[in-house]
Amino acid sequence: MTPTPRPPFRPLVFALVIVTAFAVSVSAKHKGGGGRAAQARPSKSARAERGSRASRGRETAARGRSAGRETRAERRARLRDERASARDVRGRGGRRLSRRELAAIARREAEARRRAELARLAAIARQRAQDEALRNEVAANVAKDDPTGEDPEVRRVAVAALGNHAASVVVMNPKNGRVYAIVNQQWGVRKGFKPCSTIKLLSGLAGVAEGVIDPVAENASYGSSRMNLTDALAYSINSYFQQVGQRVGFDRMSSYARQLGYGERTGINFAGEFPGRWPLFKNDVGMLRMSSHGDDIEVTPIQLATVVSAFANGGTLLTPHLPRTPEENVQFKTEIRRQLNIPQESLRRMLPGMIGSVNYGSGHKAYDPTETIAGKTGTCIDSDRVWVGLFTSYAPVEDPQLAIAVVGRGTDAHSHVPAAIAGQIYRTLSYRFGKHGDRSPFLLTPDILAPKPKIDPSTIADTDEAEEKAADPTSAPATDATAGATADGNTTAQTTYAPAPAPNVKPQLMTYPPPAQPRTTTVAPSTKSLTPAQKSPATSQPTEGDGRPRRVKNP
Length: 555
Prior knowledge:
alpha+beta; Beta-lactamase; 3-stranded antiparallel β-sheet; 18 helices; 10 strands; disordered C terminus
């Protein structure tokens, strides 16, 4: 039987059907994509509605923040932080923590925060109690003072400036040694204090006289700025004087200290005067903080007043004296302890830094636009973990009439309250002890009377307080000081001083160049090297503390 042949057009029909189906499917895909694209591009009205909803959401979040409620974004951030903390804990433990374990961790962290806050409050309470005890002690001491022979007006002004602060004030004449007033005589004559940064007057003077530093050369750097001796004194840069003291050495530093009267009685006519303290030996490492902070040194306010008086009168160390009778007051005689064997040029080189300290540096609270004041501040923590603040100064620079030393303790030592006390005394008594005549004992030039900083003052913080606070973070800030009551029952204005924050600047002291000429200065306290004009009856007799200290070997 012959088979029936297939029609020749069937393969063509089959191919046509396949092509048609493929075309239909491709067309459907394009239509669907176009629909989705159309949906992805909303109309203008839809976009406007969405923007208004976002605006309303932001307004709601702002209202929630103002009302103190947690917004949605803040809640998401909090949950994200909690999850990250949980991942950290889970990573350390190697397993996923349960909700109970996470809650226990949160409770422990909250307890740690609570204990830290309680410790902070307890430290503040202790500081307040300590301040109250110091102020009560000062009030009792002032009540026991013997004002016989003191200048009534000067004492009244000094008591008013002291107010309710825990401090002692000494006011004297830097030319003849006459004491006008000592408020809180127990602290002023019979108690020793750490000198803190006031010791930089000694370090700088020894460095200049020994030829270790060139006072006009910008041989040090602070951050990106160059710095000389003037700015180092004005801003009380610790690293600068640490290297100066280390290069001078302990023996030479002690020689200058003995000449200025450190470690010996001033000879004031008060019973029970404390002689101060000077260490027997310091190695190179110990010289660092001794030269910048005064470690292992003790001075009295009356000693500080006599030291700064030697800077004021050109190198004469006087014996302070309080005339007790009217006859002694009328026939007052100057008593000279010794004539310093230090060139006046070295003393003069220290003057711009002392003026800069008051004009724009750490002692700016004593600034008086009507007269030029030279001074030096100090702030540190004493060996008994109590804050100490000092300010020693004289004015007017052109014709010194007053030398004022203020030493305070506790919170009142913060932020240079002693400088503010001295400044109030200078301003009040300027009509009587201000500049008189045109006498210039040092032939002062305008650049000395009005020094200008070489570095930006806004980048400089109080390096003394910054370093001490870093060493003692539990100390309470001086933000709750009690207003000081004056003699008239009013309150003083300088009661609350917040310390400036330390900038993120690291001071660096460059290597000093060697002196261009060999040293010719002889600084031994012996009177053999003095000229006949420099000798005095006081220098011909040996005084307590003369001579070099005995070296003590370390065991």
